[in-house]
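Input C-alpha cells:
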C-alpha cells in the first residue's frame, strides 16, 4: 500500500504524534470505562462513538507522519467503534423513548461502514477516496439519527429532541460538506492536515457541534432518568396509597406492634373490634383491651400470653372488653413484619358471631339429638307393636289352651259341689255328730271318686293360670320401653328360648321344620335381654315370611367362640336379590309393603346390635335362602353402650 508523500511543511514531529496518540488513547479508555458502567445502551453508545471519533481524528496526523502501526490501530478502532457507537446511541434512544424496534438500517450502516473502509484501505491508494467514503457513511448515519429523533420520539420531549435532531442534521451537513470537498481532491497529492489553517473553520464547527451533541444527549438521558425517577416515585406513592386503602378497608383487623408492645399502626377494622377510633388506639398496648376476670387476670380463651411480648407465628384467641361492656372474641395471628424486624404485625379475626353461632348450633344439635332419641324410641316401640300385632294370633292360641283347661276343671268342681251339697247340709244340720265323721253309708257312691279328680283339676287350673300370667307378663315386658341396664349378666339361651316360644305359633303355620340348637353350657352376656329378644323374634318372623312352602326349614342356633357369642337364624326360603342385600338395614326399606311391612325391623335390629357393640352379618343367595348371624361381646367392657 503506497501513500502519497505530503508537502514538506506538512510533516509533523514524531514525538508530538506519539504524545498526542497516547493522550487520545487515554481519553478514549477513560470515556469508555466511565460509560461502560451503565447498563443503558445509550451511555455505552456515547463512549463507543467518542472512541471511534477520536480514532478517526487521530488517523489524519498519523497519515501525515507516515506512522503505519499507530495509523493501523487508529483506523481499525475508528472503523469498528464509530458505527457501533452510533448504532448503540440510536438503540438507546429507541429504548428510552419507547420507539419501534427497528435495527435493519442501523445494521446496514454498520456493515456498510466496515465494508467500505476495508475496501478503501485494501484497494484505493488515494486517501481522498477513503475520506470521501468515510464522510458519506457518517453523513448517512447522522441523517438517520435526526430522522428517528424528529419523527419517532414522544411529544412530551418535543423541544429537546428537536434541538438534538437539529444538531444531528448539522453534523450530517458537515460530513456532507467534507465528503464533497474530498471528492474535489481525488487524484491530487495534496494532503489535508487538521492543523492546516484553511481547515480551522470546518474543524471548529465540527468540534462545537460534537460538544453540543454530547451535551444534548447527556441532558436527554438525565432528563429521561429524572422522568423515570419521578414516575417511579409517583408509582410508589400511588402504591402506598392503595396499600393503605386496602389495609384500612380490610375486614381483617391489622396492627403493627412495636417492641415495647405499643400499637404504631392500626386499621379501621381492628379499631372497630376494640370499640375505639384509630387515633385512640395508636400508642396504646393491645393487652390493655383483654377482658379481665374476677381475680384481675387477663381473660383468655387460649394462648393470649404469646402477645405479651408478641412472638412471631403464634395464634391466640382472646376476649376483648369494650367500653360499652360488650365482649368480643378475637382470633389473633402474629408474625414479624419483614422476618427480621423487631416490629410485629398482628391480624385479628372477629370470631364473636361465629362463637355465638356455634353455641346456638350446639344447642340446636343437642335438641335434634334429643328428638332423634325420642323418635328412635318411638320407632322401637312401633316396631314392637307391629311384631305384637303379627304374633297376636299365636298369643291368643297360647292363652286359649290354658283357658279351656281352667273351664273344664271348674265344671268338674261345680259337679262335685252339686253332689256333695246334700251331705254337707246334713253335716251342717247335725253339729253334735261323732268326731269320727258321718257314717260312710251317708255319702253318695260317686262322691269318693271325685276327690282325686277335683284335686287334680285344681292343680291343672293353677298351672294354666301361671301359663297365662307368664304370657301376659312377657307380652307386657316386650311391649314396654326397654329401660333396663346392660350391666347385668344374662344367659342368651333363656332369651332365645323365650323368643322361640313367643314365635312358635307364627312359625308353625309356615313350616314343619323348625330347629332350635342351643349348647348345654350357659351363654352369659352383658346385654338388654328384651332388645335381644326383639331382634331374634324379628329375624324369625322374616325367615318365616321368606319361606315358599311348609317343607322349607328354619334353624335357630347359638354358640360361643373366641370372637364372642353367636346367634344365627338360617332359612331355606326364596333369599334376597344381590342388589337389595345392601339396603335391607336401611330405614323404611321393605319388599313386603303390600302385606303391611314397615321396613323398620332389620333397621332397628341393626341399631340394637350396633349399640351393643356387636356385629350383624347378612348373607343370602336367591332361591337357596338367607343366613343372618349376630356376634355379641361376652365381657362387660365391650358390652352395650
Amino acid at each position: 500500500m503506497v501513500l502519497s508523500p505530503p508537502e514538506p511543511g506538512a510533516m509533523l514531529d514524531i514525538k508530538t504524534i506519539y504524545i498526542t496518540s497516547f493522550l487520545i488513547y487515554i481519553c478514549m479508555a477513560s470515556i469508555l470505562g466511565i460509560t461502560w458502567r451503565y447498563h443503558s445502551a445509550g451511555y455505552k453508545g456515547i463512549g463507543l462513538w467518542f472512541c471511534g471519533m477520536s480514532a478517526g481524528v487521530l488517523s489524519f496526523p498519523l497519515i501525515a507522519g507516515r506512522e503505519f502501526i499507530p495509523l493501523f490501530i487508529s483506523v481499525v478502532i475508528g472503523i469498528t467503534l464509530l458505527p457501533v457507537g452510533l448504532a448503540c446511541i440510536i438503540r438507546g434512544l429507541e429504548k428510552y423513548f419507547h420507539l419501534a424496534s427497528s435495527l435493519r438500517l442501523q445494521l446496514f450502516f454498520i456493515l456498510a461502514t466496515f465494508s467500505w473502509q476495508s475496501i478503501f484501505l485494501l484497494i484505493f491508494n488515494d486517501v481522498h477516496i477513503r475520506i470521501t467514503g468515510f464522510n458519506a457513511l457518517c453523513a448517512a448515519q447522522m441523517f438517520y439519527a435526526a430522522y428517528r429523533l424528529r419523527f419517532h420520539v414522544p411529544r412530551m420531549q418535543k423541544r429537546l429532541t428537536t434541538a438534538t435532531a437539529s444538531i444531528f442534521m448539522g453534523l450530517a451537513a458537515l460530513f456532507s460538506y467534507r465528503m464533497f470537498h474530498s471528492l474535489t481532491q481525488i487524484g491530487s497529492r495534496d494532503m489535508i492536515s487538521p492543523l492546516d489553517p484553511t481547515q480551522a473553520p470546518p474543524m471548529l464547527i465540527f468540534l462545537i457541534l460534537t460538544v453540543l451533541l454530547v451535551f444534548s444527549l447527556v441532558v436527554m438521558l438525565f432528563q429521561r432518568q429524572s422522568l423515570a425517577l419521578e414516575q417511579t416515585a409517583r408509582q410508589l406513592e400511588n402504591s402506598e396509597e392503595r396499600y393503605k386503602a386496602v389495609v384500612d378497608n380490610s375486614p381483617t383487623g391489622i396492627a403493627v406492634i412495636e417492641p415495647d408492645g405499643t400499637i404504631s399502626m392500626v386499621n379501621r377494622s381492628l379499631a372497630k373490634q376494640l370499640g375505639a377510633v384509630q387515633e385512640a388506639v395508636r400508642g396504646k398496648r393491645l393487652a390493655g383491651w383483654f377482658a379481665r376476670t374476677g381475680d384481675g387476670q387477663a381473660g383468655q380463651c387460649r394462648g393470649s400470653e404469646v402477645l405479651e411480648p408478641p412472638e412471631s407465628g403464634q395464634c391466640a384467641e382472646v376476649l376483648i372488653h369494650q367500653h360499652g361492656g360488650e365482649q368480643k372474641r378475637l382470633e389473633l395471628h402474629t408474625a414479624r413484619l419483614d422476618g427480621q424486624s423487631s416490629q410485629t404485625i398482628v391480624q385479628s379475626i372477629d370470631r364473636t358471631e361465629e362463637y355465638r353461632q356455634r353455641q346456638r348450633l350446639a344447642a340446636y344439635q343437642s335438641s335434634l339429638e334429643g328428638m332423634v332419641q325420642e323418635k328412635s324410641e318411638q320407632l322401637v316401640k312401633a316396631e314392637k307393636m307391629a311384631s305384637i300385632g303379627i304374633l297376636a294370633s299365636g298369643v291368643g292360641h297360647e292363652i286359649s289352651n290354658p283357658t279351656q283347661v281352667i273351664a273344664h276343671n271348674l265344671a268338674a268342681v261345680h259337679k262335685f259341689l252339686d253332689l256333695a251339697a246334700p251331705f254337707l247340709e246334713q253335716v251342717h244340720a247335725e253339729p253334735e255328730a261323732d268326731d269320727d265323721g258321718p257314717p260312710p253309708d251317708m255319702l253318695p257312691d260317686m262322691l269318693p271318686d271325685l276327690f282325686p279328680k277335683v284335686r287334680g283339676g285344681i292343680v291343672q287350673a293353677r298351672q294354666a293360670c301361671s301359663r297365662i300370667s307368664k304370657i301376659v307378663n312377657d307380652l307386657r315386658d316386650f311391649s314396654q320401653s326397654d329401660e333396663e341396664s346392660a350391666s347385668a349378666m344374662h344367659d342368651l339361651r333363656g332369651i332365645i328360648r323365650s323368643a322361640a316360644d313367643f314365635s312358635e305359633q307364627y312359625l308353625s303355620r309356615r313350616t314343619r321344620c323348625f330347629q332350635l340348637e342351643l349348647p348345654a353350657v350357659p351363654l352369659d352376656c352383658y346385654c338388654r335381654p328384651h332388645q335381644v329378644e326383639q331382634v331374634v323374634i324379628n329375624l324369625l318372623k322374616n325367615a318365616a315370611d321368606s319361606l315358599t312352602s311348609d317343607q322349607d326349614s328354619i334353624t335357630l342356633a347359638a354358640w360361643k367362640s373366641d370372637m364372642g357369642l353367636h346367634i344365627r337364624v338360617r332359612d331355606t326360603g326364596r333369599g334376597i336379590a344381590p342388589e337389595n342385600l345392601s339396603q335391607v338395614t336401611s330405614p323404611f326399606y321393605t319388599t313386603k309393603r303390600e302385606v303391611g311391612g314397615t321396613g323398620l325391623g332389620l333397621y332397628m335390629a341393626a341399631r340394637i346390635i350396633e349399640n351393643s357393640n356387636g356385629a350383624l352379618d347378612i348373607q343370602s343367595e336367591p332361591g337357596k335362602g338367607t343366613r343372618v348371624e349376630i356376634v355379641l361381646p361376652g365381657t362387660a367392657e365391650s358390652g352395650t353402650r
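The chain has four domains: 8-228, 253-350, 392-479, 489-632. Residues 1-12, 99-104, 193-197, 292-310 have pLDDT under 50 and may be disordered.
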